[in-house]
Amino acid sequence: MNVGILCLTAAASITPLFACQLSVAEKETYRQAVSPNAPLAERRTAFERSIHACPDDPRLYSEFASLLIANRDFSTALPWIDKGLGLAPEDATLNLRKGETLVGLSQGKDALAALAKTPATGESQFFRGLAYQLLEDHRPAQECFLDAWKRGNEDPYVLYSLMREDKELGDKAAGVEHFKIMMARFPDSVWIHILLGDAHFMMSEYAEAQTEYLTAVKLMPDLFEPNFRLAYMAFEAGEYDSAVQYYRRALALKPRHTEANIYLGEALRREGKVSEAITQLRRAIELDPKSALAYDSLSKSLADAGRLREAAEVLGQAEREFPEESSFPAMRARLFNRMGKTEEAKMSAQRAADIIAARNKKVSLEPK
After folding, report:
1. Distance, CA of 360 to CA of 74 (rounded, Å)
2. How far apart are CA 138 and CA 130, in angstroms?
3. CB of 108 closer than 8 Å to CB of 88
4. 3-state secondary structure 46-58
5. What one-character-per-residue DSSP string does 150-179 give?
6. Among 158, 242, 269, 311, which lies 20 to 30 A Cα-Cα from 14?
7. Coil, strand, or helix at residue 196?
8. C-beta of residue 233 within 8 angstroms of C-beta of residue 205
9. Is 99:118 a contact under the CB 8 Å cutoff?
């Protein structure tokens, strides 16, 4: 999740209006929980104690979730939100926080279900837009971001998100108009550097793009977009150490991002950190079992580590996931040959040949 998003999270009230009577000590614990100057660990403990003292107050769960979300601890926030919703299933604030959390966990469909229980506001429309963006449903994403802006959520990140959808939809007129608004309203915004970086990147002007993205991360280090682009450019340049660093920064913000997880693993492999690469790529497959590249990279990492049997098992799993892809049985055949398993190698090679023959036959039968 981006810092720009986090700034939109509603601040917790510090007026203790509880559904139960608290002692003086318990009220002091609550004041510590909502104190912005207290250390995070102490605030978390104080919230847990406050909830233990007054477990039937939904607002406590919402406030605790807001703290966790602000620190990108979405996985911890979600069960606390669900506990609050167990008390008040229709609570708009709790459902809004749940939608925000699920967006942070890249679960767009579930986020929309939670946000459906919230009224349309500048904040809720923004998170709806992000949820649609995750689902690559660009038209409703664009409409939600535009509505969020019109409802008073005039944050530069909302405008940047809107412009991304303008681009995806090929809506040049809207993109130009929104860029003019960005320049007029937020001339010193980090998002201008990201927009310029994106423009240079799309034109393969990588040196200029890198300059803009580096400026962006200098202004605001905790942003996914520039870190992800810098990681990609470093990877393509063979600068794998830098790529690893930028991918890690990007994943700290979007831990479930498929491409970043896979390429971090491959960068680690190419850097020679094979054990780390294997762990990372197994996680990538857990997150997205339909990514052919993840299986390819994991099998190579295991082979680099001399773990040929495991590499063959991964390729067998890939064959089951992608039965029309000839590269996996072909790679498996080569592994079996290295392992001295001649018959298994022949069978895998034959499967690869059969897939290629079937594909060629299908192409030849298609109308010209």
Report:
1. 47
2. 10
3. no
4. HHHHHHHHCCCCH
5. HTT---HHHHHHHHHHHHHTT-HHHHHHHH
6. 158
7. helix
8. no
9. yes
pTM of the model: 0.79
The whole-angstrom separation of Cα 191 and Cα 164 is: 11
Q: What spatial distance separates the first Cα and last Cα of the chain, rounded to whole Å?
A: 48
H or E segment and range at residue 22: none
- 318 close to 299: Cβ distance less than 8 angstroms: yes
The rounded distance, in Å, linking the Cα atoms of 262 and 292 is 10
Spatial distance between the Cα atoms of 47 and 91, rounded to a whole number of angstroms:
19
Tokens of 293: 């590249």
Tell me how far apart the alpha carbons of residues 192 and 216 are, in angstroms, rounded to a whole number.
9
Token couple for 364: 């030849």
Helix (H, G, I), strand (E, B) or coil at 106: coil
Among 81, 85, 76, smallest CA distance to 97 is for 81
Taking the C-alpha atoms of residue 22 and residue 62, their distance in angstroms, rounded to an integer, is 19
Of 249, 311, 323, 309, the C-alpha closest to 282 is 311
Query: CA-CA distance, 44 to 60, in Å (whole number)?
Result: 12
Q: What are the pLDDT tens digits along the chain (368 aa)? A: 343 344 334 333 344 555 677 788 889 999 999 999 999 999 999 999 999 999 999 999 999 999 999 999 999 999 999 999 999 999 999 999 999 999 999 899 999 999 999 999 999 999 999 999 999 999 999 999 999 999 999 999 999 999 999 999 999 999 999 999 999 999 999 999 999 999 999 999 999 999 999 999 999 999 999 999 999 999 999 999 999 999 999 999 888 899 999 999 999 999 999 999 999 999 999 999 999 999 999 999 999 999 999 999 999 999 999 999 999 999 999 999 999 999 999 999 999 999 999 888 776 666 65
What is the H or E stretch that residue 102 is in?
helix 92-104
Q: Which residues contact 21 (CB under 8 A, 6 or more apart)?
A: none
